[in-house]
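Inverse folding, one chain.
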């Protein structure tokens, strides 16, 4: 299974950015998909999760600003980020976990994409 994240970028505070993750080698509809983020010296934290049934969950810090979605036909997971803040600056990672439960920790994810850097300037 391979997860290929799109390139992140530099955005001004208040701006928007969409990152994507193309999945290959997996039955896309049979997995939970998530975006995590991490800054140097900190733990990797969940940003958003979409279950195999299409139910979305968000970290409190991004609720109302970020939207996770998936396109089954394109085997792609998206993270639309609006009203970006400097504190959203991080490496963002897409991840996959098998269906059947709602993962709550990074260890419960089986596959990870490479990190993509999102920088929000003030």
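Residues assigned per position:
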């Amino acid at each position: 299974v391979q997860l290929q994240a799109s390139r992140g970028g530099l955005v001004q505070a208040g701006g928007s950015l969409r990152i994507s993750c193309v999945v290959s080698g997996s039955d896309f509809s049979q997995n939970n998909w998530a975006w995590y983020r991490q800054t140097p010296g900190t733990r990797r934290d969940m940003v958003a999760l979409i279950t195999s049934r299409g139910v979305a969950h968000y970290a409190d810090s991004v609720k109302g600003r970020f939207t996770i979605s998936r396109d089954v036909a394109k085997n792609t997971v998206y993270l639309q980020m609006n009203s970006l803040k400097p504190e959203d600056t991080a490496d963002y990672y897409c991840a996959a976990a098998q269906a059947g439960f709602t993962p709550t920790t990074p260890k419960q994810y089986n596959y990870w994409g490479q990190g993509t850097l999102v920088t929000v300037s003030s």
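The CA atoms of residues 38 and 44 lie 5 Å apart. The mean pLDDT is 95.
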